[in-house]
Amino acid sequence: MPDEFIDEYTFALDQLSVALQNSYEKMRVAPLSRTNLDYSRIVLGRLRAFYCAQDKLKCFLNKRVAQAGSDFFVETILFSLKLFNDTENLNLQIASERAIEKKRNAIRPDISLWREDNLVAVIECKTQLGWLRHNWGNHIVKREQQVKAVFPEATIFWLVMTSCNWSGFGDDSRVGNTLFCLLREVWPTQISREFEPTILETPLEKLLQQVEGL
Known about the structure:
- This protein is α/β, with parallel strands linked by helices.
- The protein has 5 helices and 5 strands; from the N terminus they run αααβββαββα.
- The chain has helices at 8-29, 38-61, 70-87, 136-148, 204-212, and strands spanning 93-95, 111-115, 118-126, 155-162, 179-183.
- A hairpin with a 2-residue loop joins strand 2 (111-115) and strand 3 (118-126).
- Helix 1 runs parallel beside helix 3 and helix 2 packs antiparallel against helix 3 (70-87).
- The N and C termini lie far apart (61 Å).
């Protein structure tokens, strides 16, 4: 056995952050088209790649449970928002898990949008709401009350990855304004490599439009 060997997996992990930054810079120079649903296209592609990779790792390593995708979903939306903020010159500060007030056990939203020290909006990201299929409305109301007790003018958005395992938001009047569900009864492993807009329940561009108007 040679004294040195190359671990390809380690090399791939080392390149992840580099690839992320390179992708960002290229997309920032040649801005994505909202009309063509380019932001949704990027998100779907990354979700498919992540979830399919985790399924393959689970099978190869004989794991019972694949790595959860909740953090990756937040990171993917965070990337899109940061890119949109920069290309559209919205001058927002975008953060993840930032406490909304300086005290112990303060709320730390998945994503928060700020202007200086003023909280403009919160985006809570959920992979699905199956665990709250009968009580998601009360959960949303409670969270909104907690945020508005500190920042009364803040807008609270909810972005769910897929309507799998629950009945969706139905005909709630807030859909497309503050409530968004990305995929229509499709799990990321079922996404095709070719972009298919028909699997979108609500394109990410709808949320970006709301953010632009803040």
